[in-house]
């Protein structure tokens, strides 16, 4: 009798332990790889998702026998609603599979949404359990959905392209969590990288190109106020101490030709000072690089000439930072440079008193730049390549 | 003691560590950051005082009345009837908190992972498991703890993988707004640390009761280190954003990514959460059951376990209509209720006991 009861209990486990009653199989899911938000005609939100087409994944060229090239690996679908949640529910009505966000690591806002303010949309992204905090955020020029509609020639999807491009750390990069921090932070400013669409190669099919990242959108509170170019973005990255594997090309005074260094690494420190009520910021840069191209006639193995090059290198860094400061601090008056946090950390009392006026104070902060630049290695050749020995300037 | 089982000091520590840390550490950083902002990590240090105090009270009482729990001790100290009132208070408190933590556990699990599973099912399954373990006696619980507590602790170490994303300078400026916000932030950790008074229910089962204080203090140290560690990681990762997250630790686990391969670790958090809460619910249910049987002087505690479980399920719904009421309770009621039961009442009992003892000694 007792054994009978135990047996029955064990049997019932068979039913429950499999968890089959509410299984969700892969072919019931629509794997979302990226999501974009556009503004509709009557101020609605159009949410577009990029969905993986599982049949075409990994089939490569072998089965793509149909003229028209390889089968498309992703498709897009849009839903329109009064806010994101509403538009997503509309979107689900048009999608026979359940939207699955686990792999969604790209969110793109269109420029007009960014200009109107992303507070509402951001709340959804931060509150909903599905969007991942490490997802990358972008702002697109023009329609955001366009970036998702593309079919990259090499990568599986345009979202993968964006993901890999940001991994190179060349441009500015912002995750959902970092954006959240910026919007909550002391400075009341944020920056989000801008996505553009690469003009397609002439021989390529329609839509066969990639989105790429160039430039940065500047936000005051949650509204985009302007944008800066890719070059200025690099300067900003110098100030933010995010220099990694940069290529730096510069002229050496009194010489023709250009010198290029890569990889350039740097340590940047922000040293805030308040002298007689005047707010000052000292940017201390320590940069190193390796020579990869020497278009001048100078012999880089000569210590004297190398010092000359190093001087020019430092001058160039200073110039980049100054240009970025003019754009960001003087023209746009948006503190995406971390100045507010630096002052807050060093001078908490003064900061508490003055934080309401930070918007007026920030453009007036006097910045001095102190660069120590050195060139560590000169590559595989000594004297400049491609010219006879006697034309090389050795001293 | 009704339960003849004996446990070691280490086993007691392993029972108590999750009994404090589970449920609590998920919301801890946001509630401390709410007051203390970037000084949140100090909150844990200050609550050490309360921990040392409750452990001292519990072990001192056990020295005076060896082999007894607080329920029996209070009858001896202030007489049968008032003692029973305090016993009933302890019983109500522990069964009420058992319901509360079951609900917290279930809210997190349904809110973040099992969106469709009914709340009642998650609660009932967990309470059923805990009841079976409690019915098995203290040795069974202790052995569960020896296996599960390391599983509960290990994932916390994975937070170190976040190192490249941590901004250590978030810790500055230190104490820029004075010590007051830090004291306010201490309200919550001190309340939870006071729960260490539950060693009163385990001391009679220790195989060497003399080591009770030592192991209590070891548990306290482990808890404090974990609190500081978790707070620091959250501060370094989230900075000013920490106060605004419901579950900052969930965010930190989701943020872990090593080369884009080793990521999406929140399921690990869910696993450790279930293990930790299993132990925690066991401990609270055990305390409720022991209090109940000792108040009524029953000869066996086993028949009471399942009815207590049902009571815990009911209490996890009563008076908690939604998550914001739960949060309100944790933020405003808990910091006063828990120390009142776990610190003030035992402290008074101890003082009365010491005074009476010195009174009889003089005679």
From TrEMBL, chain A:
Its main location: membrane. It holds the Pfam family Spore_GerAC_N. Residues 22-195 form the Spore germination protein N-terminal domain. It is found in: Membrane. InterPro entries: GerAC_N, Spore_GerAC-like, Spore_GerAC-like_C, Spore_GerAC_C_sf. It comes from the Bacteria. Residues 60-81 are annotated as: Disordered. PANTHER family: SPORE GERMINATION PROTEIN B3. Belongs to the GerABKC lipoprotein family. This is Spore germination protein B3.
From TrEMBL, chain B:
The keyword Lipid biosynthesis does not apply. Keywords: Germination, Membrane, Transmembrane, Transmembrane helix, Transport. Pfam families: Spore_permease. It is found in: Membrane. It comes from the Bacteria. The chain crosses the membrane at residues 12-35, 41-59, 80-101, 113-133, 140-163, 183-203, 215-238, 270-292, 304-320, 332-354. It is a multi-pass membrane protein. InterPro entries: Spore_GerAB. Belongs to the amino acid-polyamine-organocation (APC) superfamily. Spore germination protein (SGP) (TC 2.A.3.9) family. This is Spore germination protein YndE.
């Amino acid at each position: 009798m007792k054994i009978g009861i135990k047996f029955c209990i064990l049997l019932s486990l068979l039913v429950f332990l499999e968890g089959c009653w509410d299984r969700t199989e892969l072919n019931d899911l629509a794997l979302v790889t990226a999501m974009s938000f556009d503004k509709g005609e009557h101020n609605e939100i159009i949410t577009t998702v990029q969905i993986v087409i599982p049949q075409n994944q990994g089939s490569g060229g072998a089965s793509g026998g149909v003229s028209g090239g390889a089968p498309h690996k992703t498709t897009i679908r849009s839903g329109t609603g009064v806010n994101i949640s509403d538009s997503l529910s509309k979107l689900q009505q048009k999608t026979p599979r359940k939207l699955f966000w686990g792999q969604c690591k790209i969110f793109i806002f269109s420029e007009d949404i960014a200009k109107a303010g992303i507070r509402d949309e951001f709340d959804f992204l931060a509150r909903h359990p599905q969007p991942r905090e490490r997802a990358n955020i972008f702002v697109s020029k023009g329609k955001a959905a366009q970036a998702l509609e593309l079919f990259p020639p090499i990568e599986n999807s345009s979202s993968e392209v964006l993901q890999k491009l940001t991994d190179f750390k060349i441009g500015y990069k912002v995750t959902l969590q970092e954006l959240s921090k910026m919007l909550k932070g002391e400075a009341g400013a944020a920056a989000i990288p801008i996505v553009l669409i690469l003009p397609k190669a002439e021989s390529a099919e329609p839509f066969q190109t990639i989105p790429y990242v160039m430039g940065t959108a500047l936000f005051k509170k949650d509204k985009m106020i302007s944008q800066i170019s890719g070059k200025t973005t690099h300067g900003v990255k110098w100030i933010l101490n995010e220099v990694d594997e940069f290529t730096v090309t510069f002229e050496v005074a009194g010489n023709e030709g250009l010198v290029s260094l890569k990889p350039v690494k740097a340590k940047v420190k922000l040293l805030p000072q308040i002298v007689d009520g005047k707010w000052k910021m000292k940017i201390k840069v320590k940069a190193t690089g390796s020579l990869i191209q020497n278009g001048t006639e100078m012999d880089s193995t000569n210590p004297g000439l190398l010092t000359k090059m190093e001087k020019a290198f430092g001058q160039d860094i200073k110039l980049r930072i100054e240009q970025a400061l003019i754009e960001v601090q003087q023209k746009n008056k948006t503190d995406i440079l971390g100045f507010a946090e630096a002052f807050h950390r060093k001078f908490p009392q003064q900061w508490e008193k003055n934080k309401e006026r930070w918007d007026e104070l920030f453009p007036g902060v006097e910045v001095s730049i102190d660069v120590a630049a050195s060139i560590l290695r000169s590559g595989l050749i000594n004297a400049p390549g491609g010219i006879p020995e006697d034309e090389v300037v050795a001293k | 003691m009704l339960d003849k089982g004996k446990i070691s000091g280490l086993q007691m520590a392993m029972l108590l560590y999750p009994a404090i840390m589970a449920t609590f550490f998920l919301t801890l950083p946001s509630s401390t950051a709410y007051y203390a902002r970037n000084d949140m990590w100090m909150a844990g240090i200050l609550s050490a005082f309360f921990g040392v105090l409750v452990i001292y009270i519990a072990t001192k009482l056990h020295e005076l009345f060896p082999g007894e729990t607080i329920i029996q001790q209070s009858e001896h100290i202030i007489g049968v009837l008032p003692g029973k009132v305090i016993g009933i208070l302890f019983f109500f408190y522990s069964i009420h908190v058992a319901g509360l933590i079951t609900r917290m556990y279930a809210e997190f699990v349904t809110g973040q992972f099992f969106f469709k599973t009914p709340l009642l099912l998650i609660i009932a399954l967990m309470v059923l498991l805990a009841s079976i373990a409690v019915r098995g006696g203290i040795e069974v619980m202790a052995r569960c703890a020896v296996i599960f507590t390391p599983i509960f602790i290990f994932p916390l170490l994975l937070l170190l993988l976040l190192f490249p994303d941590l901004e250590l300078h978030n810790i500055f400026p230190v104490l820029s707004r004075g010590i007051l916000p830090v004291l306010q932030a201490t309200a919550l950790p001190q309340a939870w640390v006071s729960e260490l008074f539950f060693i009163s229910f385990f001391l009679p089962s220790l195989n060497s009761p003399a080591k009770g204080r030592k192991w209590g203090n070891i548990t306290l140290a482990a808890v404090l280190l974990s609190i500081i560690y978790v707070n620091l990681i959250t501060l370094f990762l989230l900075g000013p954003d920490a106060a605004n997250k419901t579950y900052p630790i969930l965010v930190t686990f989701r943020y872990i990514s090593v080369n884009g391969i080793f990521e999406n670790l929140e399921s690990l958090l869910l696993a450790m959460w279930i293990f930790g809460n299993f132990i925690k619910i066991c401990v609270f249910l055990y305390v409720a059951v022991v209090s109940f049987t000792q108040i009524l002087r029953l000869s066996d505690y086993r028949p009471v376990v399942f009815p207590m479980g049902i009571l815990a399920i009911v209490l996890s719904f009563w008076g908690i209509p939604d998550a914001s009421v739960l949060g309100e309770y944790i933020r405003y009621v808990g910091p006063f209720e828990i120390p009142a039961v776990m610190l003030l009442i035992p402290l008074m009992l101890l003082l009365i006991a010491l005074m009476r003892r010195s009174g009889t000694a003089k005679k």
